Structures are given as C-alpha cells and as structure tokens.
Amino acid sequence: MEYKDYYEIMGVKRDATQDEIKRAYRKLARKYHPDVSKEADAEARFKEVGEAYEVLKDPEKRAAYDQLGANWKNGQDFNAPPGWDAGFEFGGGGYTDGYGGGYSSGGFDAEDASAYSDFFESLFGGGFRQSRTAGGSRRQSGFNAKGSDHHAKILIDLEDAMQGNTRSISLRVPTVDASGHVVNKERVLKVNIPRGIKQGQTIRLAGQGNPGVGEGKPGDLYLQVEFNPHSIYRVDGRDIYLDLPITPWEAALGAKVKVPTPGGIVDMKIKAGSANGSKMRLKGRGIPAGSKSGTAGDLYVILQIETPAAKTDDEKAVYEKMRDTFKSFNPRAKLGV
Amino acid sequence: MVNRTTDILSGDIIENESSLSLRQLCDACSVHAEYIIDLVNEGIIEPSGVQNTHWCFNGMSIRRVRTARRLQRDLGINLAGIAMVLDLMDEMERMRSRLSLMGDRY
C-alpha cells in the first residue's frame, strides 16, 4: 500500500496551524469539487483532499499520523508498524462523525463509502468500521428501510443514441460483509440505451440501487448519460453539427456534394455563391425523437472552403488569372487597408 | 467478487417525466421534504402547482437537488450561494457547449 503525505496533498507545512489547514482545505475543495471543476482528475483529487483533511483537522488523528514520522514520501510503499496506534482511540472525541469533509449532516452516503484509501483504512479503519457495524446491528432488530439510490455516469457513442443500443456498465458497489467490513463488489449490468437519448439525460433503473435493510425495497440506479466525443460530429441536444470542407468553385458555382450523416451518406446541394461558414440544415437528420410526441434533431452542415495549393505552372496560372480578374476584391476592406 | 447479471435492463429517462411529486423527489434525492421546500423558496428548483401538496417537479430537478446538497455539504455554501453557483454553472455549461460547437477553429 502507498503512503499518503497528507501535508503535501493539502499543500501545507507539517507545523501548519489548524486554521491554516482549514483554509487550505476550503480552497482545494472549491478548486476540485467535482460539480464545479472541469479538471480531468477532479473527483480523485477531491477525495484525496477530503481524506487528508479528515485526518489533519482531527487533533487525535493528526497526532497519530505525525507519529509515523516525517521521512515518508508520498507514494512510498507502506505498512503500518505493529502497535503504532497504541494510546490512541479513534471514533470518539466528536471529531470523527463527519463523513466526507466534516460538513456531512445526512449521515452515510453510499457513493462516498469507497472514498477512503487503503492507507487511511489501515490506519483509522477500526473506529470507522465500528460505527458502521453499530448501524448494521439494527438490522437484526427488525428495522426496515428502503435501500439508497446509486448514481453513476454512463458513456455512450452518438451511434447508440441514433439507433439505440445495449451497453455494459461496471459498477463498484460498497457492501458491508458479514464481519462488518466494507468491501467493494463489482457489478456488471447490461443496460438498454434508448434511441433518441440526449447528452446529460438520466436513465432510472428501478430497484437496481443498493439493497434495502430488512424488508425494505432496494434503491434505484440512476445513470447519467454522457457522449464520447465524436471524430467528425459535434452534438448539441438532438442537433448534430458537421464541418464540411468544400472547394472554392463548389462554393462559387454551386454543386451537389456527398455528406456523411450518422444515418448514412446523403447528397446535398450547395447554392451558388455560398460563403465560408454558412450553415445548411438537413431537417430531421439529427438524433431521432426520444418519444412519440418529441421531434427529431437536425443535422447542420457548416461549409468550410478549402483552397488548393498551387504547385504546378498550370495551377499557378489559374490563381494568376483570378488575381487579374478579381481586381476589385479586397478582403481587408473592413480593416481600412 | 463479481456478480454478473445477463438480463438487459431498460429504464426510464427521468428528464422526460414532468410529474414527480414532492415525495418522489425526496425519495430520488434521499433528502427531507423540508430541504426541498427550502430550495423551492430560494428559487433553486421551480415546481408547477401552487400548494406544496400539489407540487409537480420535472426530472431535471433531481440533478439540481443533488448538486445543491453536495455543494452545501462539501463546501459549506448557503442556499443563496448555491442558487448563484447553480446559475453560473448553467451559464458556463451553455458557453462551453457553444465553444465546442465552434470546434477547434477558434
């Protein structure tokens, strides 16, 4: 298991005051909060910072952690020395009830159950599990409650939304085993992706969340749909955008060109005198309607005029002829030159 | 331990639902009704229907409530602050999607 340098993670010195630690935490929590931050590893960093704060904000845990010594490096292979925590008792003192950064009021949140690293668990796991087992013991006394809901993201491709598809998703579900320990169980589900689904929509699978307590029903599973970026299309709701390169003469004289669409290749007419960047709409060629009452999206084709390089003498002659013919054309007129 | 299920599951798209009751929204977000009422009073989610016994929420409310709860829990933001953060996040989302529609050209 890897040693975690909580001071390094929080960006504070080992002799930082509790106030300094709190300020550092607030700042990092804002920076990496998964709802706000768009940094790729925001969620992992947020959990890491939360874990570091969980230890450093609690004078008891911090003292115990400090006792390991200052010579450990972040990521170094680590095993807790036997009896390292002699004289410390975690789970008391009123510091350890907060879950996920100390602001928690709603108690145990299933999504956060796997938030702590092995390193943390090996050091402070005891008291943590005790409180969990206490909750679990209610199970035997006929306590019933609906299981909590599970929320996850599912990545799909544009093609899945066009035609509908089946996707497998693997979920890590924290489960309390017979001895009261929290273990991550892997669960693989095959989920129907309905035709016409949009980016950001949520699929609810009733009864696929966490198991209920006693005779309580299981919770629901919520899957938030995100699209993988596509190599040529961009998606906005049910509309699809495509950059279509065309030649200057196709733009000037008009032409019939082939256009790829997610539903297959179609012919499209370019009007004579089309400007660079003009947007043409192919109605109903976007993502199909999700329900009978809905409407299908459109495919917008954005014309991109590409000019060929003049390599041969013949090709140069054409450009020279254009120069001489279009004498009055000044693309920089608006710039006053 | 791997628990495999081979059945193909089909679900509902919650954004298409425009008829979550207060109770259903509470269940879906694992929060108390009082919390939802606070969010409504702050204008963070907007139900249709006048009295809270007849409130109807659309499916989008679920994500808004959950985000609000996380912001409050993790960053200690109060309700007025959450309302503002959520509005700014919506605005950023719109700008990001406009940017991505422009592609890599700009």
Plain-language structure description:
The complex is a heterodimer of chains A (337) and B (106). Chain A has 337 residues and is an alpha+beta fold. Chain A folds into three domains: 136 residues, Orthogonal Bundle (Helix Hairpins); 78 residues, HSP40/DNAj peptide-binding domain (Sandwich), CATH 2.60.260.20; 103 residues, Urease metallochaperone UreE, N-terminal domain (HSP40/DNAj peptide-binding domain, Sandwich), CATH 2.60.260. Chain A has eight helices and eleven strands. In chain A, helix 2 runs antiparallel to helix 3. The radius of gyration of chain A is 30 Å and the shape is elongated. Chain A starts with 5 loop residues before the first helix and ends in a 12-residue tail after the last helix. About 11% of the residues of chain A have low confidence. Chain B has 106 residues and is mainly α. Chain B has one domain: Multidrug-efflux Transporter Regulator, Chain: A, Domain 2, CATH 1.10.1660.10. In chain B, helix 3 crosses helix 4. The longest helix of chain B has 24 residues. The radius of gyration of chain B is 17 Å and the shape is globular. The mean pLDDT of chain B is 83. At the A-B interface, helix 2, strand 3, strand 4 and strand 5 of A face strand 1, strand 2, helix 3 and helix 4 of B. Strand 4 of chain A pairs antiparallel with strand 2 of chain B, so a sheet runs across the interface.
Features:
heterodimer; A: about 325 residues; alpha+beta; Helix Hairpins; HSP40/DNAj peptide-binding domain; 4-stranded mixed sheet; 3-stranded mixed sheet; elongated; B: about 110 residues; mainly alpha; Multidrug-efflux Transporter Regulator, Chain: A, Domain 2; 2 strands; about 55% helix; globular
| Mean pLDDT level of chain B | 83
- Total helices of chain A: the number is 8
Biggest sheet layout of chain A? 4 strands, mixed
Assign the CATH architecture of the largest domain in chain A. Answer: Orthogonal Bundle
> How many structural domains in the coordinates of chain B?
1
Could you please say which CATH topology of the largest domain in chain A applies here?
Answer: Helix Hairpins
Number of strands of chain A: 11
Remind me, CATH topology of chain B?
Multidrug-efflux Transporter Regulator, Chain: A, Domain 2
Average predicted local confidence, pLDDT of chain A: 82
Biggest beta sheet attributes of chain B: none
Based on CA inertia axes, which overall geometry of chain B fits? globular
The CATH architecture of chain B is Orthogonal Bundle
User: What is the terminal separation of chain A in angstroms?
Assistant: 67 Å
* Poorly predicted regions of chain A: 91-113, 126-140
